[in-house]
Write a structure and sequence with these properties.
19 strands; alpha/beta
């Protein structure tokens, strides 16, 4: 009888790509993949270990699986990813219910680990997290019409608040031909939108080719038949150049939605957090992007309560947000991550950091409402995802919305899963989603 394996993927899109690669390797090895862990011979939990909330989610998931195992409804528990990499010396001691652990440099060893675990062996494997990115095929779980395209792994930025370089290793770009081969294969399987991801895509190619290659990559991706949208995730503000801005502006397949994490705007905080550039540099960049890329929608990430943020620094950030009117933003209260320089710096308590995050979201809610209202009467390209039985309407994402973090578009019309259609926006729902009607253009 086939051995059954379930996989739970936690955390970011980069982690999901690793999960998809493990699914491919297991499938090729003859294991049967099942959606639910209840009744499975083994479950793999691919964890995030970036901030306290992610660590808690990972631990809670392990404990939930341990209850299934105790009840005889689950075989083995294999834990992979950032949590195990970060706490490799203690994770199996603290969570004895685990049968096998793999670090971020050992995703390719998943078949061996599962096989040994099912045979009753304890497994602990931590490969080189700075090794070149493994070119492993994957089982795409996001489709059928869109997929992530990871172009690099790790990070060299060493922001003072961030543990990712210590967990995921140094920055390693994939060879451009390998990236293009994967994109072609995705297109052949019906993928229309590629979401280009890495911790920092603006540095793509600098380690391999001695120059920034993101603009070149975008040009070559746009030449692939079937690819209609190219979405860029995590462009660091200090790495933009004229070539990249021109490529984004002139490449019709690059959606005019740019995710640029800034974290803060105050010069002293940026400097102490080891962020390159100043607040004025950020203001100048955003102004230039809006001037040179008509209709661009900006997204950013912000951290409230960073070390050095007093009331004056917080108010500077709030004033900037009111002026810049960034259409999309994720806001996180500062979480002092052990092993990072920022964890040792004085900072406000968690309650105050959360209060400030809530105030920022109030500002952003107004910006979002204003932006959504500006879309009424306009016709947008929408990637149709599914038919929603509750509303009796098709549902999709506009070119201004990224999956899982932004809104949706509900519309009447012919739709069709995976199609890119044109929708005239007629209203905005109470929860901020757009509503409209499909039109011909």
């Amino acid at each position: 009888m086939d051995r059954t394996i379930s996989l739970i993927s936690l955390g970011c899109a980069k982690n999901l790509v690793n999960s998809e690669q493990m699914l491919y390797l297991l499938s090729e090895a003859g294991y049967k993949l099942v959606p639910e862990p209840d009744g499975a011979d083994a479950v793999i939990i691919n964890t995030c270990g970036f901030i306290d909330a992610a660590k808690s989610e990972a631990i809670d998931t392990v404990l939930e699986m341990a209850e299934l195992k105790k009840a005889g409804k689950l075989g083995k528990i294999i834990v992979t990813g950032c949590l195990t990499e970060r706490y490799q010396d203690t994770v199996m001691q603290e969570l004895p219910e685990i049968d096998a652990v793999l670090g971020v440099g050992s995703f390719g060893d998943i078949v061996e680990a599962v096989t040994k675990a099912l045979n009753g062996e304890s497994v602990s494997s931590f490969g080189d997290k700075n090794a070149p990115v493994e070119e492993t095929p994957r089982v795409v779980s996001t489709g059928p019409s869109w997929a992530y395209l990871r172009i690099a792994e790790g990070c060299n930025n060493f922001c003072a608040f961030c543990a990712i370089p210590y967990i995921r290793g140094r920055y390693r770009s994939r060879e451009i031909e390998n990236v293009l081969d994967e994109a072609r294969e995705l297109a052949e399987h019906g993928v229309k939108e590629l979401i280009v991801i890495a911790q920092d895509i603006t540095r793509y190619g600098t380690d391999l080719y001695g120059k920034r290659c993101l603009a070149e990559l975008c040009r070559k991706l746009a030449e692939i038949d079937g690819i209609e949208w190219i979405r860029l995730h995590y462009l660091y503000p200090d790495q933009f150049d004229d070539e990249l801005i021109d490529e984004i502006a002139n490449n019709e397949k690059v959606v005019k939605y740019l995710d640029i994490p800034i974290q803060h705007i105050n010069n002293d905080i940026l400097r102490s957090m080891n962020r390159r550039g100043t607040g004025d540099d950020i203001r100048k960049l955003f102004k230039e992007l809006r001037e040179r890329i008509p209709g661009v929608v900006l997204r950013t990430s912000l951290i409230s309560g960073l070390p050095g943020e007093g009331e004056a620094e917080f108010e500077e950030l709030c004033c900037f947000l009111r002026e810049a009117k960034i259409e999309r933003a994720g806001v996180f209260p500062f979480s002092p991550e052990e092993g990072t320089p920022a964890a040792k710096m004085p900072h406000v308590d968690a309650e105050e950091a959360q209060r400030r995050a809530d105030l920022i979201m109030e500002i952003q809610a107004g910006v979002m409402d204003e932006f959504n209202a500006s879309l009424i009467g306009k016709t947008l390209e929408v990637l149709c995802l599914d038919y929603d039985e509750d509303s009796q309407m098709w549902v999709g994402r506009s070119c201004y919305d990224s999956p899982d973090i932004d809104g949706l578009v509900f519309f009447d019309g012919d739709g069709g899963e995976g199609n890119i259609v044109y929708v005239n926006i007629t209203t905005v729902s109470d929860d901020g989603n757009l509503i409209g009607e499909e039109v011909c253009v």
